[in-house]
Structure formats: structure tokens, C-alpha cells
Amino acid sequence: MPATRIEVNIPGEQRYDVRVGAAVLDDLGPRCKQVPALAGCPQMLVITDSNVAPLYLARAKASLADAGYRVADIVVGAGEASKDIEVLAEIWEAMAALGLARDCAVVALGGGVVGDLAGFAASTFMRGIAVAQVPTTLLAMVDSSVGGKTGINLAAGKNLVGTFCQPSYVCASTEVLSTLPEREWRCGCAEVAKSAVICSDDFFFWLLENASALAMRSEEVAAEAVARSVVFKADVVAQDKTESCGVRECLNYGHTLAHAIEKMAGYGTYSHGAAVAEGMRFAAQMARALLGTSSELVSAQAELLDELGLPRLGWTADAQEVLAVMKRDKKARRGQVRFVLPRDVGAWELVDVPDADILSCLRSWMAQGDS
Ligand code: NAD
Ligand code: GLY
Asked: Which protein residue's CA is at the shortest distance from atom 43 of ligand 1?
């Protein structure tokens, strides 16, 4: 299967390519040589994590070195805890100790954690050096490696400090997904489903038809799902690079309830993807109640999520408490909770939902989850 090239063209930014395909990792060095911001780098710094390093670091470094780059690496601990100011400070110090200059670049080899952390380090070191994203999770391929959000967490909340900094190149080498744990696979599937519902009939019905193959980890279907998701995300980001005109927020479909579930159940109790799937089901039901969205959409989406191995969680909580947590979320505006609600497949609205409606939808949702 040949690799797919998707051009990301965001107003005011350098264009960049996302390459999706099996073994494009082995082509990383030569491809970087074709990117103006990376071609002349005297030194590349690969940042990865402790799970990915033994699997793919040597391949990435070999490809870069064979293309003529001097290459160094930093390995951080795997997991969300590395999106942290102390880890970031260690990276900055290591970058300085290596003598990285403005014309050097970072290669972020890993999942969304490495992508966000390394992207943030690159965007702030010497006021910004170039970064290439080499996503190794399905979630990172379909979402976090494209669009330029970077960041770290604070004790006060996730992703509270960050930048918008577009990568110069994205290399999505789908064969690396073969080593991904099942839980992480399903997290990526949830983000693909999110994009499909929000994007179009074409994406949604293609995914519905191919959902069981994606759940079974067909490489061909995964590559197509990544490519379709990237095309969709690139289009959204091109319209609203900094999430300031109400378009990019569509990528938060399902995330309003998901963030509350993750916080209330304790981070890690449910995977992010499982919580997003629950949030999508809830939002679709809320859309049915408030916008008259068809029951066909609600049930087709439920079928899709079931096929992808993302069943209902059976999670329940006090509706008033859930509402209070939602109001403290960083996405809430002046205490008003915002939902992305599907009017139809490919047609969504950003709605400030009144508290009374949220409570009534939550109560009916919890009652169904209990049964
Ligand atoms: P992750 O980076 O923690 O990766 C999940 C796990 O899989 C880790 O243990 C990792 O070591 C391991 N792993 C990665 N690739 C592997 C491979 N090929 N084989 C075996 N193991 C592998 O998690 P994630 O789900 O990729 O990303 C979540 C992060 O992404 C969160 O911090 C979230 O805030 C962020 N995010 C950012 C954006 C954005 O636009 N910047 C969008 C969505 C999510
Ligand atoms: N993952 C949401 C965004 O990139 O805006």
C-alpha cells in the first residue's frame, strides 16, 4: 500500500506534510531533508518515552543519521506524569547542554504525551525551534500530532500551559501501531469516531462499514482512518488555528462529559477514549432532546461505538456534582457549560446549555446507565 501525503495549509503558517503509511519511519531522515525548516539542521534531538525508546528510537535515529544529521536523544518516563514542569526543565537544560541552536530541531517520537511535551519544549527553547512529529499511538496520529497544540499539565489542571506551534513535518508510520496496547488502541478509535461523526456522511458511513476491521486492527483500515482524520483535522485547524472563532471547538465533541468522568472517577480509572465515547453518546442524546436530532443518528453512533469496542460505561454520579465539575472545566465560559451537539452527521452546533437542561439530560442518562 503506497503512503499517503496530506498537505496541511494553515493561513499564516508554513505548509507542512503529514505522511501516512507503513514504514514511513525508515524514510524520516530523507523526508526531513526535503523540508526547508529541517533540511539544514546541524543537529536533531529526538525526544521519546521509556516504552517507545526500546521499540523505535534506533530506527528513527538511524534514518536521521543516514540522511546526514547529527542526532541526540532524550528519553522521558512513559505516561501523563511526564507532561510536567520539572521534566520540561530537564529537557530545556539538556537542550542547552547539547548546544542546540536556533537552527536545530526536535523530533517528537511517541504518543500525545511526548508530542505535547516535546512540542512545547521546541516552541519555547530559544523562542522556538522547529519540530517534527512522529506519532506512535493511534490517538497521536489522528489528533494530537497535527494542529500545533502543545503543552504541559499543572496541579490545577491538564494542559493549562502551552503554545500553538505547528510542526514542520508529521510522519505517521502505521506499522508501529502493532505494539500498541489494546486500551490505547481503543482511545485512538474513540477519536476517529469523534471526527467521523462531526466531519461528514462519507467519513461516518465508511467508518461504520469498517469499524470491526478497525477494532481488529487491520493496518489498511487504520491507515485510511488516520488519513481521513488528518484531512478533517487539517481543514478544521485551517479555519480556526487558535480555537478562537468557534470552529476548532468541534474537536471537543464528547469531551465535556468525558473530562468530568475522568476527573470524578479518578484519572486512569477509565481510559480517555472510553470516557470520550460515553461523552459522545450523552451529547447525541442531549442533541436529540434539545435540537431534535434524529434517533437514527443516536443509534447509528451507538452501533459504531459498540463495534469499536467502546461500550457504555455504566458510570453514575450525582447530576449536581457532575454539573459543578463541568462548570470548573477550562472550556466553560463564565460558568456556562458548552457542548458540541450533533444536529446531524457532519452538522454540529456549539451550544451553551442551560443548567436545568444539563441536569435533566444527566438524570435521564444516569437512569439508563443504571438499568
Ligand atoms: P501516551 O503518549 O501516554 O501514550 C500511551 C501509552 O502508549 C504510553 O504508555 C506510551 O509509552 C505507549 N506507546 C506509545 N506508542 C507506542 C507504541 N507504538 N507501541 C507501544 N506502546 C506505545 O498517550 P496518548 O493517548 O498518545 O496521548 C495522550 C496525550 O495527548 C494527553 O496528554 C492529551 O492531553 C494529549 N492530546 C493532545 C492533543 C493536541 O492536540 N495536542 C490532542 C489530543 C490529546
Ligand atoms: N484535540 C483538540 C484540538 O487539537 O484542538
From this structure: 144
